[in-house]
């Protein structure tokens, strides 16, 4: 069960088609497995269509969307019938093979990475798959910019809690953490970074000049 979701503004931007391709992919992967957020996006899509028909140029605040969504969510409704999407379907289609069979590159300690930025040639962000070995720890680090992450397999924990498969995480330069893979399988994530991470450990910080 997903416990960490994209915020309302991110869902609004996704609905409006304003997100970059890699950011939209992260949300799409989350939506495939989260009926709660799918319902919110469906509502935003319907609301946007009505606004386009009636008022081509209308300024609507995020608080207004929150109010409308809250009202809709509190109304009784029948349980929708959903079809479970294939596991990591959109990403597997992009990569052409299962994520566990990719040519992972050992980066540091328990962490392996695969940069797939070349799959998005017209985007400025760095798009990276990261694998943290089961029971392993990632080096302590902060961020030089924004980082959007979705958990594709397994789970990890840090000071903010436990993030399971399909959970959505957004971090920036104010966040410092040291993820630990929990459970009996490797934790694999997809991250979109506007700038490289910054290692903060006593010894690992010396490696910062070599991190792109």
Which helices and strands occur, and which strands form pairs?
Elements lengths: L7 H9 L4 H13 L1 H20 L7 H12 L15 H7 L9 E4 L2 E5 L10 E7 L8 E3 L3 E7 L1 E4 L2 E3 L4 E4 L8 E3 L4 E7 L3 E3 L13
Helix pairs in contact: 1-3, 2-3
InterPro entries: Anti-sigma_ChrR, Anti_sigma_zinc_sf, ChrR-like_cupin_dom, RmlC-like_jellyroll, RmlC_Cupin_sf
Pfam family, one: Cupin_7
Protein name: Anti-sigma factor
Question: Which spans have pLDDT < 50 for at least 5 consecutive residues?
Answer: 77-88, 202-211
Please state the overall shape, judged from the principal axes of the Cα atoms: globular
The secondary-structure class comes to alpha+beta
What gyration radius follows from the Cα positions, in whole Å? 19 Å
> CATH homologous superfamily name of the largest domain?
Jelly Rolls
The CATH topology of the largest domain is what? Jelly Rolls
Q: Characterize the biggest β-sheet.
A: 6 strands, antiparallel
The amount of beta strand, in percent, is 15-25%
Task: List SSEs in N-to-C order.
Answer: HHHHHEEEEEEEEEEE
Q: What is the CATH architecture annotation of the largest domain?
A: Sandwich
| Straight-line distance between termini | 34 Å
Mean pLDDT: 80
Domain ChrR-like cupin: 98-190
Organism: Marinobacter salinus
Protein name: Anti-sigma factor
Pfam families: Cupin_7
Walkthrough of the structure:
This protein has five helices and eleven strands, in the order αααααβββββββββββ. With 212 residues, the chain is α+β, with helices and mostly antiparallel strands. The protein has two domains: 8-73, Arc Repressor Mutant, subunit A (Orthogonal Bundle), CATH 1.10.10; 89-210, Jelly Rolls (Sandwich), CATH 2.60.120.10. The strands form three sheets. A six-stranded antiparallel sheet has the order 1-2-3-10-5-8, with helices on one face. Helix 1 (8-16) packs across helix 3 (35-54) and helix 2 (21-33) packs across helix 3.
């Amino acid at each position: 069960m997903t416990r960490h979701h994209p915020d309302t503004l991110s869902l609004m931007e996704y609905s409006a088609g304003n997100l970059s391709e890699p950011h939209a992919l992260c949300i799409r992967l989350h939506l495939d497995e989260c009926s709660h957020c799918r319902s919110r996006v469906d509502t935003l899509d319907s609301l946007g269509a009505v606004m386009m028909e009636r008022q081509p140029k209308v300024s609507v605040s995020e608080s207004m969307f929150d109010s409308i969504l809250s009202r809709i969510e509190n109304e009784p409704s029948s349980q929708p019938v959903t079809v479970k999407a294939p596991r990591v379907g959109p990403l597997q289609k992009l990569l052409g093979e299962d994520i566990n069979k990719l040519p992972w590159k050992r980066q540091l300690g328990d962490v392996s990475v695969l940069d797939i930025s070349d799959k998005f040639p017209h985007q400025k962000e760095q798009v990276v798959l990261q694998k943290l070995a089961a029971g392993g720890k990632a080096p302590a680090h902060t961020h030089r910019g924004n980082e959007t992450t979705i958990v594709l397999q397994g789970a990890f924990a840090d000071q903010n809690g436990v993030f399971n498969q399909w959970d959505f995480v957004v971090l920036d330069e104010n966040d410092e953490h040291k993820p630990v893979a929990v459970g009996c399988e490797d934790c694999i994530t997809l991250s979109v970074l506007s700038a490289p991470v910054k290692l903060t450990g006593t010894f690992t910080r010396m490696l910062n000049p070599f991190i792109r």
